[in-house]
UniProtKB/TrEMBL annotation:
InterPro entries: PPIase_dom_sf (IPR046357), PPIase_FKBP_dom (IPR001179), Trig_fac (IPR005215), Trigger_fac_C (IPR008880), Trigger_fac_C_sf (IPR037041), Trigger_fac_ribosome-bd_bac (IPR008881), Trigger_fac_ribosome-bd_sf (IPR036611), Trigger_fact/SurA_dom_sf (IPR027304)
Class in the EC hierarchy, top level: isomerase
Compartment list: Cytoplasm
Organism taxonomic ancestry: Bacteria, Pseudomonadati, Pseudomonadota, Betaproteobacteria, Rhodocyclales
The protein, known as: Trigger factor
Length: 434
């Protein structure tokens, strides 16, 4: 075998190779002899088919397999000899001018880039700071109360937060349009299930009152035939129901899983869960800044093959997510190209983090993995059951190990960068800011 390497671009490589036809012919003969031992043909006992007939029938298959094996072997040897890290799969290009004595071909492929960590001391990371106190517990309990809101009839005008039951009919150019009418239709004013202008028109009406009004749909409305169009609605209110929040009492505590209805225990559980969630959100915000910092200080070119593979995987994940939501993906085109930017970022971070883990020895230690698994199990009724589940299968534990490695990288980067604590409002951290 002979090889010759060219470098078309920074990551792309081309290796010219040749394999002696004598080697291929020898391999073809060996494969045909192996087939002859078991091949079955009418008129012959198994293993007794004449070699000439076996060759006539199976020689093309044997030659194709032999050439494939020879090319794979030649490429593998060349890569090892030149100490190349191949990214993706090579593209094999036969040479038309091959001689009768040798099969000549080229392998075109990409290699992994050299990753050199940049100077992280120039980067600033702001760690959100928030202590969970009574005020945060009270706000969370209020959210839990609102999630369990009931409604009772109210003899007054409808206001924000009320649930109304209405009949309505919408007309465009005097004609009813599809989806524009309903009877006994309930919705909560201010919940966002209806367009704001529709809610505004209903607000202030009492049970039994009716109203006719014009409304213009937004330009980006999902129903294209209505987008930007002005229509007329007739609305009749049949019920106005005021919201009633449950009292924070024994029944409320029991409904949330506190068996004896002790409200103080409920508050303790809410505080514990809230502290865990606040910690998780703070870690997520720090992680996002760390990843941005790594990309900022470590500019690298990424192999197209890895980006294409990652884009395809993201597209498949999106399809599975849509199917889990009950959608038929055959009717919804999901193209890998949609995820190209996200794929580039993920590949870059994967390469950078892998280099840091290797050079800075940030591998997951068994005690770190154990601590993480036990922390995740704390929110379960039987924590030991989840711990056993993780440790029962290596692939499950590998998921926890990956999280620990990521946490190790985040901690190391934060220690190298200019990291400061920045107080954050509870609503802002939890995503409840107006």
């Amino acid at each position: 075998m002979q090889t010759n390497q060219e470098t078309p671009s920074s990551l792309e490589r081309r290796i010219d190779m040749s394999v002696a036809m004598a080697e291929i012919n020898k391999e073809v003969e060996a494969r045909l002899k192996k087939m002859a031992r078991t091949v079955k043909m009418p008129g012959f006992r198994p293993g007794k088919v004449p070699m000439k007939i076996v060759a006539q029938t199976y020689e093309p298959q044997a030659r194709s397999e032999a050439i494939g094996a020879a090319v794979e072997k030649a490429f593998g040897n060349a890569v090892r000899e030149q100490n190349l890290r191949v990214a993706g799969y090579p593209r094999i290009e036969p040479k038309e001018a091959s001689s009768a004595d040798a099969l000549e071909f080229s392998a075109v492929f990409e290699v992994y880039p050299e990753v050199v960590s940049g100077d992280l001391s120039t980067q600033t990371i702001e760690r959100p700071a928030l202590e969970v106190g009574d005020a945060e517990v009270d706000k969370t309990i209020d959210v839990l109360r609102k999630q369990r809101t009931s409604f009772e009839l109210a003899d007054r005008a409808a206001a924000e937060g009320d649930r109304v039951v209405i009949d309505f009919a919408g007309r465009k150019d005097g004609e009813l349009f599809d989806g524009g009418q309903a009877e006994d239709f309930p919705f909560v004013i201010g919940a966002g299930s209806m367009l704001k202008d529709f809610e505004t028109a209903v607000t202030g009406l009492k049970s039994g009152e009716a109203k006719t009004f014009d409304m213009t749909f937004p330009e980006d409305y999902h129903a294209k035939h209505l987008a930007g169009q002005t229509v007329q609605f007739e609305v009749k209110v049949k019920k106005v129901e005021a919201p009633v929040l449950p009292a924070v009492d024994s029944d409320f505590a029991k409904a949330l899983g506190v068996a004896d209805g002790d409200v103080s225990k409920l508050r303790d559980e809410v505080r514990t869960n809230l502290t865990r969630e606040v910690k998780r959100r703070i870690q997520a915000k720090v992680k996002e800044q760390v990843m941005n910092a790594l990309i900022e200080v470590t500019p690298i070119e990424v192999p197209k093959a890895l980006v294409e593979a990652e884009s395809s995987q993201l597209a498949e994940n999106a399809k599975r997510d849509l199917e889990a939501r009950g959608m038929q993906t055959k009717d919804i085109p999901v193209e890998p190209a949609w995820f190209a930017d996200q794929a580039v970022r993920r590949v870059k971070l994967g390469l950078i983090m892998a280099e840091l883990v290797k050079t800075k020895e940030l591998h997951a230690k068994p005690e770190q993995v154990r601590t993480l698994v036990e922390e995740m199990a704390e929110s379960y009724e039987d924590p030991s059951e989840l711990v056993r589940w993780y440790y029962a299968q290596p692939d499950r534990l590998a998921q926890a190990e990956a999280v620990v490695i990521e946490d190790n990288v985040v901690a190391w980067v934060a220690s190298q960068a200019q990291t400061t604590d920045k107080p954050v409002a509870f609503d802002e951290l939890m995503g409840n800011a107006a």
